[in-house]
Design goal:
Number of strands: 4
Largest sheet: 2 strands, antiparallel
Strand order of the largest sheet: 1-2
Distance between the termini: 32 Å
Number of domains: 2
Low-confidence stretches: 1-7, 245-249
Oligomer: single chain
Number of helices: 11
Order of helices and strands: EHHHHHHEHHHHEEH
Structural class: mainly alpha
Strand content: under 5%
Helix content: 55-70%
Length: 273
């Protein structure tokens, strides 16, 4: 699902995120002949590439979307929207998230999702929740993190690595990529939760990481350094967007916790492969 078209960060809320997912789904569906299964269309909408775990990732994102739809419904009702205005949008979209329909051709679903009133209802929910917005990640920042992820994935294909290094980097890449996917559905909260797992993994592994790095190949050192850059950058972005304040000062929760563990590895990023 494409990120924001503008470079600057903007405001998003649960309603606008659900609307964005809907738009991505309809766009993905329009690129086929209607015979593709709904699972394939959702994969395109979520930018989930073909992989052995692609279906599991899509199912996890659909579960996250169902949670967000329930949140939008509750928040919109609290804002005074009647069910007659909420249901025409959220109802059809919720129906398309159930696992029982994933094996049905897209053409059998588009009749429920395509009428103009569906998008209009979702847009009304987004407008009603405009006061519940949070600052979104700028497209340039999101793209930079995705570029780092792609580079690391390609390096793991091209470079022979120590098993511990490969396993560690694969875990961080998988966790951060999944966090970015969840971010488009659930917003910053889901990314912070995923990043806390990443930070915990780095903290638990840092002693063995440093020991392995000292005697690892130049290729492995470079990969560890680039992975450390990725973790540090993603943590800093989360902190910047959340702007946690305590006693009058901003507290950089994630980056402060992870910095002592990744800083020793950052120097390896410049190692030539």
């Amino acid at each position: 699902m494409a990120g924001p078209s503008q470079d600057e960060a903007h405001e998003s809320n649960p309603g606008s995120r659900v609307l964005s997912v809907y738009d991505a789904l309809m766009s993905a569906g329009s690129r086929g002949d209607g015979k593709h299964l709904l699972l394939k269309v959702w994969s395109r909408a979520f930018d989930v590439h073909d992989a052995s775990d692609a279906e599991d990732r899509v199912v996890a994102l659909l579960q996250a979307l169902r949670t967000e739809i329930a949140l939008v419904r509750a928040m919109a009702a609290k804002e005074g929207m009647h069910d007659q205005l909420i249901d025409p949008g959220l109802g059809p979209l919720l129906g398309a998230t159930t696992t029982t329909v994933l094996s049905i051709p897209w053409g059998n679903q588009v009749g429920n999702l395509g009428p103009p009133h569906v998008r209009l209802s979702l847009a009304m929910c987004a407008w009603a929740l405009r006061g519940a917005g949070e600052t979104s990640m700028a497209a340039t920042e999101l793209g930079a993190i995705q570029t780092q992820l792609n580079e690391l994935e390609q390096l793991m294909v091209d470079v022979e690595l120590e098993p511990f290094v490969r396993d560690f980097v694969e875990r961080q890449v998988r966790a951060i990529r999944h966090a970015l996917s969840l971010y488009r559905v659930n917003g910053l909260t889901s990314v912070k939760q995923a990043m806390r797992t990443v930070v915990g993994d780095v903290a638990t592994s840092h002693v063995e990481l440093q020991a392995t790095a000292e005697k690892a190949s130049e290729k492995s050192k470079s990969l560890l350094g680039k992975a450390a850059q990725l973790v540090k950058r993603t943590a800093e972005v989360c902190d910047h967007l959340s702007k946690i304040k305590k006693t009058g000062q901003e507290v950089y929760e994630l980056s402060q916790h992870v910095s002592p563990f990744v800083t020793p590895l950052l120097a390896y990023a410049a190692t030539k492969i």
